Amino acid sequence: MQRTRLPIVLIVDDEPMSLQALRRVLEEDFSVLTADNVADAQKVLSEIPVQVVVSDQKMPDMSGTDFLANVRKQWPDVIRIILSAYTDPNDLIHGINEAGIYNFIPKPWQPEHLTLTLKNAVRLHTLQQENEQLNIELKLTAPSWDSKLQQKRAELKHRHHFDNIICADDSPMTALCQQVARIAPYDIPVLVTGDSGTGKELITRAIHYSSHRADKPFVTENCGAMPVQLLESELFGHARGAFTGATTERIGLLEQADGGTVFLDEIGDTSLEFQVKLLRFLQEGEMRPLGSNRSRKVNVRIISATNRNLEKEVLAGRFREDLYYRLAAVPIHVPPLRERSMDIAVIAESILKHHVLAYSKPVEGFSDEALECMSAYHWPGNVRELENEVRRMLVMTDSTVLGADLLSAKVLQETCGELPALDQEKTDEGSLKDRVERLEARILKQTLIRQKWNKSKAALELGLSRVGLRAKLERYGLEQDKVKNE
């Protein structure tokens, strides 16, 4: 069986412990190479087709931005990322101008944020390679290019249509998609709220590709944890000499997206200073790059998203009320996965179908017991956590069906299924005896699931005799036809 080739990432840091920690977090999704000095890193880049390089900013032989500036000159296709505990806006902007860095990851980094950033960087590298290939084709076959472009646009519209958002027929997402589909064709600001990982960006892309702007750019910007000056430069652009390190003119994302849609993610994390400048743009429909004395008209639709309650943020004085009403002409709330358990099975099946192809593993589906446990779990990380769980089950299995025994301990601990003999709705009520019995029943079923309902193995793990285990199973109503190996 051929193993899927992982994207190659080079980590450059002079601290061995930092390299080890980064490798442990990333090696599941990437082929990780490391270097503790610039010379070794350059040797790796000259010999291996690296897609993304992540460099620490503070290194003894050369700063991260200077190193990445050299990488930009010698290997311009490599996506460059800075990792640093220092957040001086001038240093960051200098790095963007000189080194052309794709993103800045602050220390201490979060594993999920780090992995997601690198996955997006790999996607960007892939798109750049595809774009270069398309440019070659354009020169060779210009007439066919227009047809291919139209075809790609049609594919994007189909892929991001509301009908392709996975949900059950009785899901609250069905009504939500119908509501959003009605407002999509109109140029009205939309604010999408909901927990992280619920699919806010899916809704946003569906709005764009269902509007008259579908053939124009769709640009996203994550506004969270970014210095004001850097965020302003990203969106509005800057003139040459606008600040220290601004050696060239930069066109902002708003101007790049002219005619299309701009998605401002994590808008609730922005500062009041930036909110004033964004409000001015929304009111006047024109922007002025940093350091420029010339305003530019820009026609974009703004869609924003946040996992915060902006109404509470307004009351607390952390978000401008006038900006809130500018952004939230149509507020849309995406419910978390725990409030739409009917979606869990269909989303899990869709995720599995996608990764079965990617991993080339002949898995047909989930067992009923696995789907029961997954549907009962509360999924605090929402769809993103569910996808990680499905991927983990897929790579761990040797069978064609993913059973409940493959689920992680945190899922099994909370989702042992319905226990017929006990009321689990009030686990913190009742006498000590009642509470102990609930705990005992849950441990029994969790162990049976993990041991694939093999009584002998379950009894051995729990330190019980087979007779004692059978008595407890009868007491708690856990005897099932699927119990194996009597």
Automatic annotation (TrEMBL):
PROSITE patterns according to UniProt: RESPONSE_REGULATORY, SIGMA54_INTERACT_1, SIGMA54_INTERACT_2, SIGMA54_INTERACT_3, SIGMA54_INTERACT_4
Domain Sigma-54 factor interaction as annotated: residue spans: 166-395
Annotated ranges, domain Response regulatory: 8-122
Gene3D superfamilies the UniProt entry points to: 1.10.8.60, 3.40.50.2300, Homeodomain-like, P-loop containing nucleotide triphosphate hydrolases
UniProt-listed CDD domains: AAA
Keywords, sorted A to Z: ATP-binding, DNA-binding, Nucleotide-binding, Phosphoprotein, Transcription, Transcription regulation
Residues with PTM 4-aspartylphosphate: D56
Domain of life where this protein originates: Bacteria
Pfam families from the UniProt entry: AAA_lid_14, HTH_8, Response_reg, Sigma54_activat
PANTHER family in the cross-refs: PTS-DEPENDENT DIHYDROXYACETONE KINASE OPERON REGULATORY PROTEIN-RELATED (PTHR32071:SF117), TRANSCRIPTIONAL REGULATORY PROTEIN (PTHR32071)
Protein name: Sigma-54 dependent transcriptional regulator
